[in-house]
Write a structure and sequence with these properties.
Layout lengths: L11 H4 L3 E7 L9 E5 L5 E7 L8 E7 L4 E7 L9 E6 L4 E7 L7 E5 L5 E6 L11 E7 L5 E7 L4 H6 L3 E6 L6 H27 L1
Antiparallel strand pairs: 1-2, 1-12, 2-3, 3-4, 4-5, 5-6, 6-7, 7-8, 8-9, 9-10, 10-11, 11-12
C-alpha cells in the first residue's frame, strides 16, 4: 500500500491550494528587516513571517507563523563572519530539515535549485532574463529537476512606476499544481521570500552607495 506523504505540522492549509500570495511590508525605506503576509486567493491572511536581524548574525532568519501565532516554518541563511552565503535552510516547527534552496551562481539570470535534505535537486526556479522584467511583472519559472516539465510560477507583480520607486513593498503570486507535495509548496513559499531578500539587499546596497 502506498504511503501518503507526511504534512509538516501547521502546513495543512497548503495541501488544499494551488496558489497563494506573498506580500512583503515595511514602514520605511530604511528598515533592515521585512514582514511578510501569506494571503489566500480570496484575500484571507493564512501565515505571517517576520525577518529577524542581528549584527553579524544570519543573513536571513525568518520565522513563519499561523494566524494563532504558532510557528510553522523556519528559514535560515547562515552568515560566516558576516560573509554572504547562498544556501537557504528550511525546517518545520519541530526543527526537522525540509530541504535547501541554493542560488545558482553559474547562471546569468537569478535562478535557484530546490533541494531535499539529501541535497538532491527536486525543482529548479529560473528568473527573468536581462531586461525581461523592465516595468512589468517578473516571472520565475518553476520546472522539474531535468527541466522537462513546467511545475509552477512565482510572479513578482509590477505595481506601477510611482509605487515601485516610493513604496518599498513587493507583492508576489505563487502558482503550482494542486497535487504538488506539500513540502515542495512550502519550499516555493520559502523561495519566494528568498527572492525578495535578494531584491531587498540589492536596494539597500544601492542606497548605501
Amino acid at each position: 500500500m502506498e504511503r501518503l506523504p507526511i504534512t509538516p505540522p501547521g502546513l495543512e492549509y497548503l495541501v488544499q491550494v494551488s496558489q497563494f500570495h506573498v506580500n512583503q511590508t515595511q514602514t520605511s525605506l530604511w528598515e533592515s528587516h521585512c514582514i511578510y503576509d501569506v494571503i489566500s486567493p480570496d484575500g484571507l491572511l493564512v501565515y505571517g513571517g517576520i525577518q529577524h536581524r542581528e549584527f553579524c548574525g544570519p543573513t536571513m532568519d525568518v520565522r513563519i507563523h499561523n494566524t494563532q501565532g504558532h510557528n510553522v516554518l523556519n528559514l535560515l541563511l547562515p552568515s560566516d563572519f558576516c560573509s554572504w552565503d547562498t544556501t537557504l535552510q528550511i525546517s518545520d516547527s519541530s526543527g526537522n530539515l525540509l530541504g535547501y534552496i541554493e542560488k545558482n551562481l553559474a547562471s546569468f539570470t537569478t535562478s535557484f535549485n530546490i533541494l531535499n535534505p539529501f541535497h538532491q535537486i527536486c525543482l529548479k526556479v529560473k528568473g527573468p532574463g536581462w531586461g525581461e522584467d523592465f516595468m512589468s511583472d517578473a516571472n520565475y519559472q518553476v520546472v522539474s529537476a531535468d527541466k522537462s516539465v513546467s511545475v509552477g510560477l512565482i510572479t513578482r507583480v509590477w505595481r506601477g512606476f510611482s509605487k515601485e520607486v516610493f513604496n518599498p513593498t513587493d507583492n508576489y503570486v505563487v502558482q503550482f499544481p494542486h497535487d504538488l507535495d506539500v513540502t515542495m509548496k512550502a519550499m516555493l513559499l520559502a523561495c519566494t521570500m528568498f527572492i525578495d531578500l535578494l531584491l531587498h539587499e540589492e536596494r539597500r546596497k544601492r542606497r548605501n552607495n
